[in-house]
Structures are given as C-alpha cells and as structure tokens.
Automatic annotation (TrEMBL):
Domain of life: Bacteria
Lineage start: Bacteria, Bacillati, Actinomycetota, Actinomycetes, Frankiales
Any single GO BP term: signal transduction
Protein name (Swiss-Prot/TrEMBL): Tetratricopeptide repeat-containing protein
Provenance organism: Parafrankia irregularis
NCBIfam families for the chain: FxSxx_TPR (NF040586)
Alphabetical list of PANTHER family matching this protein: AAA+ ATPASE DOMAIN-CONTAINING PROTEIN-RELATED, ATP/GTP-BINDING PROTEIN-RELATED
InterPro entries referenced in this protein's UniProt entry, alphabetically: NLR-like, P-loop_NTPase, TIR_dom, Toll_tir_struct_dom_sf, TPR-like_helical_dom_sf
Region (Disordered) location: 147-181
Annotated ranges, domain TIR: 12-145
Pfam family, one: TIR_2
Amino acid sequence: MDGVVGALGPRGQIDFFVSHAGQDAPWAEWIGETLERAGYSVELDVWDWTAGTHLVAALERALERAHRMIAVISPMYLERSWTSAQRYAAFAVHAEESEGFLVPVVVSPCAAVPRLLRPLSNIDLVGQDEPEARRRLLRALAPAASPDIRADRRPGHPPATLTGRTMLASPPDHGPDGAAGARGVAFPGGVSAVHNLPARDHFFTGRGDELQVMSDLLHGDAGPGLTAICALHGEPGMGKSQLALEYGWRNVTSYRTALWWINAEESTGAATGMAGLAEALGLAVSGGPSDLRRRVFQELSRSGDFLLIYDNVVDKAILDELPSGGHVIVTSRDPALSDRFPTVPVGTLPRAQTVLLLRRRAGRITEVEADRLATAVADLPSAAAQAGAFLAGSRTDPGTYCETLANAPDGLSLTTVASLEELARRDPAALDLLRRLAYLAPEPIPLAAHRTSGPDEGKAVLGRPGSLLVGDAATTGELVDVIIGLGLATVSDVRMTVQRPVRALVRASIPADSRRTVLVRAMRLLATADPGEPRTPAHWLAYAELTPHVVAIIHALDDQPCPEPARFRGLLLATCHYLQACGQFRLGLRLATRTHQRWTAVLGADHPDTLAAAARRAVAVYRNGQVEAARTLDVETLQRRRRVLGVDHPDTLTSASNLAVWLFTLGEWMKARGMDENTLARRREVLGSDHPDTLTSAANLAVRLAALGEHEAARVLDEDTFTRRRHLLGEDHPDTLTSAANLANRLAALGEHEAARALDENTLARRREVLGSDHPDTLTSAANLAHRLLALDERAAARALAEDTVARRRRLVDEEFTDPSESGRQT
C-alpha cells in the first residue's frame, strides 16, 4: 500500500542503503538515482564500493550510517545467499530500533515472500511504467530528506576529493568515444523477461569504437528471418568477455524475449547454459544437448527478439546451428572465426584508457603512477584490472608494485602471481578455497553457506539447491570478498567463476607435494552439493550446473590419481544417473565407463561402489543400444553383488531387476518373468510395497505378463502401481507417467480404445511438458497414441503423428541412442 513507510530518525549519515541481487542492478541504480534526484542521500554498492572493499565490513558501516534499508525484491533476491545475509542482518540488528528500517520494493512477481517481510509495507513496482513507478516510490518514502550529501556520487557526476587525491567514487557512463557522458540511468521496467547476464563490470572503461561497430553489425540488414552475428576476436586477457558483457548490459532493455550468456569454452558448460535458458523459458530440462538446443531455438525463433552471447568459443561446431531472427555475439581466441562471421578485433587499450581504468580500480594512485603501471602491464586490460584490484585491496605502495612488474614478460601472469602472494599473506583460508576451486571447471560454481549449530547443522541455509557448502554465512562472505577483491575471480549472484588463465596459474602455484591433498579436498568440497534425487526433473538444472565440475575432477584424476572420498563417489554415481534419466545417454556412457574402469583398478572389482558403477555402466550401455553387452555386464554384477552384499540387499535386487529388462528385450520372456516375480516378492519383503523400487518391479512384471498374453492380470497390477505412484510421487513424476503409459497399453489390449486414447493423450501432454517433445519416453507416448488413433479409424491423425514421431526418432539416432523396449524398467 502507498503511504509513509517510516519517519526518518536522528541516527545515520545517509537516508537509504540499497540492497539487491546482482542481476537486479538496473533496478537498484534506477531507485538510487530517483531518490537522489528527489533529495535523498543513498549508498549503493554499485556506486560506492570500489574493488578491494571488504564487503562484510562495508555492509556493517552502511547499515550503521543508513536511516533505512531498501531491499529490491525479486525471485533472485529471495534465493541468493549474499543478499539474504544482508537482508536478515539488517533486520535483526535494526528492527528494534526503527520499525520502518527495512523497506521492501518489489520489482518482479514473487511466488513466496519470507515471513520476515510479510508484515512490512511493500512498494510494488511490478508492471508499472516509469512515471507511475517513480510516483509510487517517492510517495511511499515521503517526506524527503534534505538534499545535503550525495548529489555528486551518481554515475556521470564529477569525482569527489579525499585526502588530496582525486577519488573516482563511481564509474562514469561513456558515450561512443569512451568519454564520460551525462546519460542517466535507464528505467529497467523494459529489461528482458529472461536474462542471466553476469554482474556488470562497473569499472568498464573505453571501447567506444568497438561497441559502435558491434551495434552496427548486429543491427544491419541480415535479411528476413536470418540471425545477425558479431564475433569478438583477441588474445587472452584483451577483455573480449568484458566487452560482450558491457554490450549486453547497455542493451538489456532491447531484447524482450531473452538475453542469455553461455559459457562455451567446453561442451558441458554450453549444455549447462542451454539447460538454464530452457528452464527460464518454461521448457523441460531434458534430453541430450542437441535435443535441448533444438527446442530452445525453436522457442527463440518464434519471436526473433533475443541476444545470445557465446563466451570463449573453442569448438566452432557449436555455432553450426543457431536460432533465426535474433542476435548472437561470439567471443573467441580463434582467428579462423573471421572466415565465418563479421569480426571485431579486440586488442590492448589505448594508454589514456588504461590509465583511467587503473585509477578507477585502484582509487589511490596518481596519474604518473598509473602511467608507469600501464607500461608494466603492457596496456593489457585484464592485467590492468587485476593490478588495480590488487592495489585497492592491499597496502602495497604503487611504486614498489610497479617495480615488481616492470620487467615482467607476461603482465597477466605476474599480476596474478602477485595477487596470489597477497592472498596468502592476508587470508590463507581464502587461498585454500581458491586452490580447491581451481580444480573445478572454468564455469560458474554455485556456492552456499550452511548452518553451524542446531538440529540442521551442516545443512544449507543460504543459496541454490545443489550449491557447494563453504562455511557459515559470515565466513563464506569474507572468503569470497577477499578473492574477488584481488581480482582472482568474479561473482554473479552466488556463483563464482575462476577464469581459465587464473585457474591454471593457481594450480601451478600449489606445491607439488600438496597437489594430491588439495585435489582430495576439492572433491570433498564438490561433494557437499546435494542436488537431490537424479530421476526428478525439478533437480536436473542443479545437476546440469554441477556436471562440468564433476567432469573437470575426473580429468584432474587422470593427471593426479588419488583416492576419491566416499561422498564424492556418491555424487559421481548420482551424476551418471542424472545423465541417463534426462536423456544424455552418450555422456552418461562415457562417464559411467571411465568411473567403472577407474574404481575397478583403485577399489577392486568387488567394492560396493565399483559394483554400483558397473550397474550404472550396464544401464548406459543398454540405453545406447548394446543390449547383449549390457546383459553380460549385469550378469557379472549380479553374481558379485549376491556374493558380496547378499541376495536381498537393495543393490542386488536392482541388478536382478535390470537383468530381467535386458533378458526381456533379447526375447527371453519367461526367464525375465521369473526374475521379476522373484525380485518383486523380495522387494516387498525388504523395502515395503510402496517403495519406489518395489513399484518399478511391479511395473516391470506387468509388462512381462502382458507380453505373455495375461492382459487382465497385467491391468490389475498396472492400475495398482499407477495409483500408488500418483499418491507417492505425484502426477508428473516420470515413474508415474511410465505407469500411465503402461496402463493405457493394457486398456488397449483389452479393447478399451477410447479409455486408452484419453489416457495416452493426457500422458503425452504431461511428458511433453515435463520431459520435452523429443525425450525417448515422450516419443513412446506419441507412438502409442498413434496406435490408438489408428485403432479408432482416425487414420489421417494417426499417420501425421506417426510420421512426426518417426522423424524425431531418426533425428535423434545420431545424437543419443535410445533403447527399444517398452516403458517400465529399473534404471
């Protein structure tokens, strides 16, 4: 509701501190500028916290100075750990002193608002145009404070002075020539509905000519329905990624469908980016990379109003297929990119811009010192940015630092090494964290804090599902702050990224006799992630984010063999299971095969985890069409599990269930039936009638009964299984949908074609929604429905659906092999 949220009290030197999630920076900036133009004083980390600032200490000082705190509320804000820590710290410390201290400003629809915020008077800006949003904001916060302090601290205003040195307190906006301009902050109400841009680099300097050329290329006449492409080429450290990011943020309001950043250095990273875009667009996160990419591109092509940024492309084949009608930016070190796409070369900065960048980042150096340092780093943008961050976060004299770098042949390496030495001196625990993260992939790493006491000790308290647990909220924040403060990593929301050059230098700096220990500790850190049950589609995005890091560890183990902690082995098995469940059969097979072979050599063939890997490998082999090989592998696994674990162990029963599927597919129906009956009886006794594995056995047995002509018995068993799964797992769980498809087959076999058709139509619609149109199970439902339509003499509809299904299956043959059997299998 509109109205006064709380009167200004006597304490504090500024009126408002603005807290926000990284991707809501445009809203925070607009709110800050709007309030300052109305006479309020504002502190906003984007404007006022330079590189090297200790964020936890700065937050405490800001809250002490502020009369009130504005929380920019969005789904991102409510789930991100660092802003959550800010919000709850603010409320806990100041709620008793001032009833209206915390002011929530809602900028995006939120499904659930924390209890802590519900009693507060929200300022709702969702869906409002700029005049109405401004009116609501100012009316709710009236009366205005005296315009006394900070009118000169907005972007575009002159620098303040402090202790005789010129302090660029905020990054000025730049026009096309890179000079400071007077452009105001754009109203963010038109920000792309779907975007995942990393946090903006508010120290970005210059590059006006390159930005103009990029704009000209992307907005030229590409032709009807064609995609406009702009490639950025340059050697490492030239700032290609920062240039693409700045273009994205400057044009964030121009793309109404999507503006999406894809880490394209490795195939797993690109697949993760596409999975995130699929979820953001409301599509199913399932299927192999080609299937998922095709569905996302079809959705984007419907409007053509999008920008995709492929960062650090190594394999150009990733660009062979693109959506139509929109814009694509590619960054790469490969000069051959210019043979395919219009290319903007990205080189070193002009000296004046390097000096400006250094002075803005360091904050405490003279122009002469900045010029000397620019010479030392050879005007390399990344090295200059890291050097500035180093000086901002350390007590090192600029002259001494210049002398250290003066004779360096590689500015980026020397600035990184110097920052690592400073990190070791200042915070050894932060260095230890960075070393562990350096063994992961050069993709965003989801981090979270956890509880340190109480009944939920050790559980995540802040962050996304599937995040790595670093420590309690305060410790996690401090470790992250010092790492990013020295320019050794970047953070967007709760994801930290260690770029490949820095990652390599960090790993090289680890003493040889400590590398195995650090790698083991990296695995333990990664294993703190708990993405959930791998067969549940809601968990697949969390697994997609973790998969590149799991694969990176596997590569590291090839170079540095060492024991894998038990929890990491569990995560690795779950990742293999996820890849098979979501339809990434080829990657699932490669990972399961390498895991089984490595554990056989390290742990022994009879170790329970080795046997689990063998079972995963057998499923992967089967999913890739090698049924006889799957049977051979599972026969051996079943024998070993019976001997090592016992005949009634759940893992042994899983092997028996899987082997029955392989036997059935090979035509040994009676033998498969006997194994399924035995396994179902044992699972009911050991696990109970409602356990998911027991229900899988029941579903499998019903398939065997139907194949042997016992349709009524199969129907009864399938109806019971379907009912139990709906109750226990929900209507849209993949296992429930499997039971629905199976029951429709039973109904059709008994002549109830209309009932079978209705159930198949419902199942197909749900599978398309949950799994995607090209998932193997969805195509099975489509084929089943075509049979129902044919049985009901709807030949034209049956033919159209069958032809579409055949075309989709053929298209997938070269991408992800699928098994030919009917649904109802243990995997």
